[in-house]
Specification:
With 459 residues, this protein is of the alpha/beta class. The protein folds into three domains: 208 residues, FAD/NAD(P)-binding domain; 106 residues, FAD/NAD(P)-binding domain (3-Layer(bba) Sandwich), CATH 3.50.50.60; 104 residues, FAD/NAD-linked reductase, C-terminal dimerisation domain (Enolase-like, domain 1). Helices cover 31% and strands 26% of the residues. It has 13 helices and 23 strands. It has a five-stranded mixed barrel. Strands 7-14-8-9-10 form a five-stranded parallel sheet. Helix 1 packs parallel to helix 8, helix 3 runs antiparallel to helix 4 and helix 3 packs parallel to helix 6. It is globular and about 65 Å long. The chain starts with a strand and ends in a 7-residue tail after the last helix. The mean pLDDT is 95.
Length: 459
């Protein structure tokens, strides 16, 4: 039996950075995952393939609206198989890069499925089914990620009733699509298919789309997404689903409608397959593996990070967990703080937010000042035909950033300014001394911060 200092189950954005960090510090590290799944959900079934499809959808939108830029394009069309091929090439390139990086770092890779047992022994079933081996470690980290959640009444026919996995590999664009769930996954994939011609209906049972986003912005975005071809029903429930003659029949708030396909996008749950047929027990809390401040589970020297534990199910949060845990193992006194984990939605327009929103500030009775900046007044945005959107910043009475929400071009990049300003406690006066190049989209963030204290040039 091979022995290691550390064995990591899962090669996603939590597992592979942790493996590389510790191997470079001289630890004997092994990582277990299927060869086709290195990079995790993010790379193979989530962030990256979705963004590849969104990029194709955005390019197609620009092609159809070329006249807005003084260009003539009489005929437009798309090739769905080639769009999927491009997506697959991108994920393959990134996946191969991760494997090469791990090998260069000295990490031992086991391609297969790991099953956790007692005494920190892991049984690895090889991906090619050639053999099953056992390995042991001084420490084990569970970076097992998550899988799509589906209601118990969700029909089993994956040809009609999709999870995000099936949607990302659809053989063609459906004429009509019902999306159950108005979170990030549902809105992003809904916009992809709408841009390529699907009649898309998104049903969200909560009063607003995109949980976590402030209510005012969520409401403001409804007409924006309607213009993009999405029918969005909030505060409604899909009461029944059934297959009828190769199509889906859905009962929505008492009314029956038919769709070619249904995408269930109601969230994700922890992937617990590593415990199947195992005699080891781990404490859980609200569906997550329970950990202490040092990421240790209820079993000594078994740790967990990423989607498997509390906090937002986001790739960058998993990588943050890996960084904190690696630092702790090296003797640094750090603990995780999820109060400034940015959230991003990569639709058109993009949406991003970080910190506290207005509802949360009012609930906590925290005084704040609001600053706004419109992209319609930003030169870079207008030259790109991206004048829709705004930046809202929330500052404390002494000028520290409490939260920000952005919808508009490159929101996912601009939000880094907000995160950095909050993380390091930069005051609005100090921030305004940082020279922003012109013309840039980030100028709009500076303008919003200055407007909160009445100092903005454009008001």
């Amino acid at each position: 039996m091979q022995n290691f200092d550390l064995v990591i189950l899962g090669g996603g954005p939590g597992g592979y950075p942790l493996a590389a960090r510790m191997a470079r510090k001289g630890w004997q590290v092994a990582i277990v995952d299927h060869a086709s799944e290195f990079g995790g959900t993010c790379l193979n079934w989530g962030c990256i393939p979705t963004k590849a499809l969104l990029a194709s959808a955005r390019s197609y939108h620009l092609l159809k609206n070329a006249a807005d830029f003084g260009l003539s394009c009489s005929e437009t069309s798309f090739d769905w198989p080639k769009i999927l091929e491009r997506k697959s090439k991108i994920t393959l390139q990134l996946r191969q890069g991760i494997v090469k990086m791990l090998e260069k770092s000295g990490v031992t890779i086991f391609n297969g499925h790991g099953q956790l047992g007692k005494d920190r022994v892991i049984k690895v079933s090889r991906s090619d089914n050639t053999e099953t081996i056992e390995i042991q470690a001084k420490k084990i980290c569970l970076a097992v990620g998550s899988i799509p959640a589906a209601p118990a009444v969700f029909p089993a026919d994956r040809n009609i009733f999709w999870t995000s996995n099936e949607a990302l590999n659809a053989d063609k664009v459906p004429e009509s699509l019902l999306v159950v769930g108005g979170g990030v996954i549902g809105i992003e994939l809904g916009q992809v298919f709408a841009e390529f011609g699907s009649k898309v209906c998104v049903v969200e049972m909560m009063p607003q789309i995109l949980p976590g986003l402030d209510n005012a912005t969520a409401k403001r975005l409804l007409p924006v997404f309607k213009k993009a071809g999405l029918e969005i029903l909030v505060g409604k429930k899909v009461e029944a689903l059934a297959a009828t003659n190769g199509r889906a029949t859905a009962t929505i708030d008492g009314s029956t409608r038919e769709f070619d396909k249904v995408l269930i996008a109601v969230g994700r749950r922890v992937n617990m397959s590593f415990l199947q047929n195992s005699d080891l027990e781990l404490e859980t809390e609200k569906g997550f593996i329970k950990i202490d401040d040092h990421y240790m589970t209820s079993q000594p020297d078994i740790y967990a990070i990423g989607d498997a534990v509390k906090g937002p199910m986001l790739a960058h949060k998993a990588s943050y967990d890996a960084m904190i845990l690696a630092a702790q193992w090296q003797g640094k006194k750090l603990t995780a703080d999820y109060s400034l984990v940015p959230s991003c939605v990569y639709t058109h327009p993009e949406i991003a937010w970080v910190g506290l929103n207005e509802e949360q500030l009012k609930e906590r009775q925290i005084e704040y000042k609001t600053g706004r900046s419109m992209f319609s007044a930003n030169g870079k945005a207008l030259t790109a035909g991206e004048g829709d959107g705004q930046i809202k910043t929330l500052l404390s009475t002494d000028g520290k950033l409490l939260g920000a929400v952005i919808w508009g071009p490159e929101a996912s990049n601009i939000i880094n300014e907000a995160t950095m300003m909050s993380q390091f406690g930069i005051s609005n006066h100090d921030f305004s001394m940082m020279i922003h190049p012109h013309p840039t989209l980030s100028e709009a963030f500076m303008e919003s911060v200055e407007n909160a204290s009445g100092e903005g040039v454009h008001g």
